[in-house]
Design brief:
Strand order of the largest sheet: 1-2-4-3
Oligomer: single chain
Radius of gyration: 25 Å
Structural class: mainly alpha
Helix content: over 70%
Strand content: under 5%
Number of strands: 4
Shape: globular
Distance between the termini: 57 Å
């Protein structure tokens, strides 16, 4: 009864109060739903203390226990950080944090001699202050995650100095992109007339294509070192595989991901006839810094087969060895190239652009509604940037949740299809062992609650992927 009474009371209120109440109510509903799911998954981490039968061949009990404890720590962290960010967001709304920050930005502009007519200038100051606030409140959480959780479980490779320099660099680079792009977007919305939403959408389309193009060549190298993969067997085999499926490969890079973390990854990027592949050094057994450290500790030569070494050292090398063999790296790339060959990348771009167009169209319909601004404490002015914030972040949130869930389901389908593609290339066996190794290296926990995984997992659970590959290995 209480819930209906609350909804009834809301319905009696003026429109702006109704809008504000609905936004808060929806935000907390989503938060409680996600917390409920996280608790279900947490129960799985707590109660599954032995390797399930079907995993016996895949995971030893030591790795299983390590990954269980890692995921438990991560889930505790995400509970507290999630609660904090929900409470913070609620307090900002209840105490008028957004209009307050807008007024402060106006004051700053006033000091510099810009009056209220310089709305775009004020919007840029607002963005700078808002992102600064969010970077500072997020910093303690980020520090704790990196230097306590990731450190405790052996993933963190950063020093505090590297971390802080990185955070400052990230903030500066973000501002260098965010501020000019936002000022142009606001200008286009202001001068675009009745069809401004078409121009705004085209502008964001161009910006996202330009960013995708320059990201790996100009932005990513500011943070990590990229070196071309040296000539040799692996490079040759990658080129042969790319050619066999007409993938227009121009360069293969190894990125020094091990400076930050020992998690591993691989991806490709680039448009049209100019594709590059990027492999994390932590993915490659031959390049992994961790393996080199183990070899140095054990006094082993890299190529020695370890004969004559103590059993303890052999065990240490066996357990600690990180990354995949060349055949497995090729299988992982076969999967990644499958995404390209099957048009997943293009389909994702099309979906995201259709969504973006729809959002700008609805924004054009709603931007004139004064009650939307009044609901969030803007009684006298209706700044365009604030309109974007209110409509895209708050009013569209139910739509965004549904869309996000649909994209997660689609992503899982794409992953199965890319696995099947790698299988067609004859890489089922190697992909099978690579997935097990990567799961072990990244301490993924292979047991999941069905509801939690359905809502959150962009990749299918490990067992399902292995099952699909196994069926084909026997075919």
């Amino acid at each position: 009864m209480g819930m209906w009474a609350l909804l009834d009371a809301m319905w009696e209120m003026p429109a702006e109060k109704r809008i504000f109440g609905a936004v808060l109510l929806f935000s907390w509903t989503v938060y409680l739903w996600e917390t409920f799911l996280a608790q279900r998954q947490r129960r799985v981490y707590k109660t599954t203390t032995h390797v399930p039968l079907e995993l016996g061949q895949i995971m030893d009990s030591e790795t299983f226990e390590k990954s269980r404890l890692y995921q438990l720590d991560k889930s505790t962290f995400s509970f507290w950080s999630g609660l904090y960010s929900e409470v913070e967001g609620t307090l900002i709304l209840l105490f008028g944090g957004i209009p307050y920050l807008w007024r402060v930005s106006g004051r700053f502009c006033g000091y510099a001699g810009f009056g209220p007519e310089y709305e775009i200038t004020q919007s840029l100051v607002f963005l700078l202050l808002a992102t600064l606030f969010s970077a500072l409140t997020g910093l303690p959480w980020s520090l704790y995650n990196t230097f306590v959780i990731e450190e405790k479980h052996g993933f963190n490779q950063q020093t505090l100095g590297f971390f802080m320099k990185d955070a400052i660099k990230k903030f500066v680079v973000t501002q260098c992109i965010l501020l000019p792009v936002s000022s142009l977007l606001l200008y286009i919305i202001k001068i675009g007339g009745d069809y401004f939403f078409i121009y705004a959408w085209l502008f964001t389309l161009v910006v996202s294509l330009v960013l995708v193009t320059i990201y790996a060549d100009y932005i990513a190298p500011l943070f990590d070192k990229f070196t071309p993969l040296p000539e040799g067997k692996l490079k040759q085999e990658i080129e042969v595989m790319a050619k066999s499926i007409d993938f227009p490969l121009t360069k293969v890079y190894v990125v020094e991901g091990s400076k930050r973390s020992s998690h591993s990854n691989a991806y490709f990027y680039g448009f049209f006839k100019n594709k590059r592949i990027v492999l994390f050094d932590t993915l490659l057994e031959e390049y992994s810094v961790l393996n080199k450290d183990i070899q140095e500790e054990s006094g082993m030569e890299p190529r020695n087969d370890g004969e004559g070494d103590s059993e303890e050292i052999k065990a240490k090398v066996k357990n600690k060895k990180q990354g995949c063999k060349n055949e497995e790296v090729l299988a992982v790339l076969g999967h990644e190239l499958g995404h390209w060959k099957l048009g997943h990348t293009v389909k994702n771009i099309i979906i995201s652009q259709m969504n973006s167009f729809l959002c700008f169209f609805l924004f054009a319909v709603l931007i004139g509604r004064k009650e939307l601004f009044v609901a969030f404490g803007f009684n006298d002015s209706q700044p365009t940037l604030i309109g974007l914030l209110i409509i895209f972040q708050f009013i569209f949130s139910p739509y965004n949740e549904v869309l996000s869930f649909c994209l997660t389901v689609l992503s899982r389908r794409f992953e199965f299809q890319a696995d099947a593609f790698a299988k067609k290339l004859g890489k089922a066996k190697d992909l099978y062992s690579a997935l097990i190794k990567l799961n072990k290296d990244n301490l993924g926990f292979p047991v999941s609650d069905w509801l939690f995984s359905m809502w959150h997992y962009s990749h299918p659970p490990l067992l399902e992927r292995l099952q699909a590959l196994k069926n084909s290995k026997q075919d």
